[in-house]
């Protein structure tokens, strides 16, 4: 009874010897798994003289072993096994065809690696990995090792066919190497190596440094990281990859083929190892190509004109101004002068706003040079002509008078006086005439005053003026 219970105790311990009908107990035999792969198990045990060996598989198949010997150590490799499987073997020591002793032991093959690991979620400081469970079986556990860090046993999620694990406290825009081990029966798989990059940081801000009608020049501070590139997404349209500059801290990029006066949405991504940052979204308006406030200004003398316009919004490189019949002129300001013109004339001017290599539709204006000089000149000229005419008359009259005095001293004065009054109203003469007429008027008044007394006073001497 005691012996039986002792035997049972012994039977419950593996490895152990099951004592069969042995005349003499053999030497203690221990089996070790010397090497292990997913399909192979190399077993070693200590040699017992004059014994042969039979291996019994858990499915009942018994195979006589052809062992290789290394001194007192015997070795046998079991092949065609399944990965990550626990096998129960019995090794029999056979002497003269009789199983003398049996050694029960278990051994596991190496588990398979995971087929692949994908990044399920990513941030600047964390990575969440996901993988399909080996053999869709939750008996396998996993160990994730980040290079240069200690192992992390990943938590298991029962029930699903995928496992996930999050690694945190990482740096942005950095590539990390990992090894994921499958664990079964205390044994690790060979390790699945993979690497993953954290999300790079966005650029801090984007400045629109130049705004043209058909293009926008952008600039931004480089993200301080190695192997960075950029992707600019233009609205929902195509994306442009922009290589980072070496040894430069400020990037510039020109977006071309835009339309004037249009708002555009952009998203700028920083890219590291194919991983995009969250993206910085901004919008900007291209320069408008409309000239406003176009007007003319007179310049003194009327021999020049100034064309003035309002500075258009946005970046414009210049203005092409063409006066009809002249070569086009260019200005980068808001004013252009034309010289060598004639006063009081109309000139047609056409203006085109240039923004980069785009020109606006032409805007025309008709400008008149200052006419005041011409009017004053005409008046002066007229006055001068009148003066000359009068001068001529005065001279003429003088010569006529002289001739009359010489030829006929008793000539009638009235005729020449009448001629004078009708032809000339020059101030000089007018004065003379007015004094004359006043004299005549006075004479007339005197006459009127003296008429009555003549009627009352018959003794007064009536003197009849010749011209009444
Ligand atoms: C050893 O294995 C054999 C065959 O599988 C089995 O019959 C026996 O009970 C085992 N012995 C022990 C002690 O586990
Ligand atoms: C083992 O076999 C050899 C011959 O093959 C023999 O000489 C030897 O005595 C045997 N040993 C034992 C312990 O039986
Ligand atoms: C038992 O398993 C071994 C190893 O896997 C194999 O070689 C053998 O054919 C199997 N026997 C049966 C009957 O399945
Ligand atoms: C994995 O196993 C679960 C049950 O454990 C099952 O629902 C699922 O369909 C299996 N998936 C695959 C891919 O075999
Ligand atoms: C990891 O260790 C290797 C060598 O031990 C070293 O060259 C490398 O710089 C380390 N990497 C990190 C991220 O610390
Ligand atoms: C996996 O990476 C380790 C170093 O981290 C290396 O020793 C090993 O050879 C790699 N395995 C494979 C299959 O490349
Ligand atoms: C962008 O504009 C801000 C404010 O005007 C300025 O401080 C910054 O240096 C500019 N950055 C670049 C890259 O031009
Ligand atoms: C940058 O990328 C190139 C090619 O992908 C690689 O050879 C190089 O080691 C990388 N440099 C850094 C600092 O990651
Ligand atoms: C640009 O973005 C604004 C909102 O940020 C949106 O209202 C507008 O429709 C967008 N424009 C285009 C052309 O996508
Ligand atoms: C306009 O052009 C003149 C000469 O070409 C140059 O000296 C001046 O700096 C320019 N002005 C602007 C605002 O570009």
Automatic annotation (TrEMBL):
Signal peptide: 1-23
Region Disordered, residue ranges: 411-468
Ranges for domain Fibronectin type-III: 24-113, 199-290
Segments passing through the bilayer: 374-395
Biased composition regions of type Polar residues, renumbered to the chain: 452-468
Pfam families xref list: fn3
Composition skew (Basic residues), residue ranges: 440-451
Keywords, ordered alphabetically: Membrane, Repeat, Signal, Transmembrane, Transmembrane helix
Protein name: Fibronectin type-III domain-containing protein
Species of provenance: Pangasianodon hypophthalmus (Striped catfish)
Lineage, highest ranks first: Eukaryota, Metazoa, Chordata, Craniata, Vertebrata
């Amino acid at each position: 009874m005691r012996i039986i219970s002792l035997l049972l105790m012994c039977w419950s311990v593996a490895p152990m010897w099951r004592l069969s009908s042995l005349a003499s107990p053999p030497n203690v035999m221990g089996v070790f798994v010397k090497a292990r792969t997913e399909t192979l198990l190399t077993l070693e045990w200590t040699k017992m003289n004059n014994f042969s060996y039979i291996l019994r598989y858990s499915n009942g198949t018994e195979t006589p072993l052809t062992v290789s010997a290394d001194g007192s150590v015997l070795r046998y490799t079991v092949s065609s096994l399944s990965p990550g499987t626990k096998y129960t073997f019995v090794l029999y020591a056979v002497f003269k065809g009789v199983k003398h002793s049996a050694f029960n032991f278990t051994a596991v093959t190496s588990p398979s690696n995971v087929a692949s690991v994908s990044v399920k979620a990513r941030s600047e400081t964390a990575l969440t990995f996901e993988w399909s469970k080996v053999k869709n079986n939750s008996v396998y556990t996993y160990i994730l090792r980040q290079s240069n860090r200690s192992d992390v046993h990943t938590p298991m999620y029962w029930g699903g066919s995928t496992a996930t694990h999050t690694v945190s406290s990482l740096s942005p825009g950095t590539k990390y190497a990992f090894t994921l081990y499958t664990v079964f029966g205390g044994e690790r798989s060979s390790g699945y190596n993979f690497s993953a990059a954290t999300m790079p940081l966005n650029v801090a801000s984007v400045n629109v440094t130049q705004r043209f009608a058909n293009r926008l020049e952008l600039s931004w501070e480089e993200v301080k990281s190695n192997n960075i590139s950029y992707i600019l997404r233009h609205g929902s349209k195509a994306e442009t990859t922009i290589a980072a500059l070496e040894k430069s801290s400020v990037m510039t990029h020109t977006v071309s083929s835009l339309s004037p006066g249009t708002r555009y949405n952009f998203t700028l991504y920083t890219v590291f190892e194919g991983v995009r940052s969250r993206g910085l979204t901004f919008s900007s308006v291209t320069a408008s190509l409309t000239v406003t406030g176009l007007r003319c200004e007179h310049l003194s003398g009327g021999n020049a004109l100034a064309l003035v316009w309002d500075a258009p919004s946005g970046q414009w490189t210049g203005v092409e101004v063409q006066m009809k019949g002249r070569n086009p002129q260019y200005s980068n300001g808001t004013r252009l002068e034309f010289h060598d013109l004639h006063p009081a004339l109309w000139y047609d001017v056409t203006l085109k706003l240039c923004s980069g290599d785009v020109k606006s539709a032409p805007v025309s204006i008709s400008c008149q040079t200052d006419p005041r000089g011409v009017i004053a000149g005409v008046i002066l000229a007229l006055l001068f002509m009148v003066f000359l005419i009068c001068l001529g008359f005065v001279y003429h009259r003088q010569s006529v008078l002289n001739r009359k005095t010489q030829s006929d001293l008793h000539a009638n004065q009235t005729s020449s006086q009448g001629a004078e009054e009708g032809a000339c109203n020059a101030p000089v003469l007018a004065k003379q005439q007015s004094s004359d007429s006043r004299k005549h008027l006075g004479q007339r008044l005197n006459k009127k005053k003296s008429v009555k007394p003549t009627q009352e006073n018959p003794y007064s001497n009536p003197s009849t003026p010749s011209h009444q």
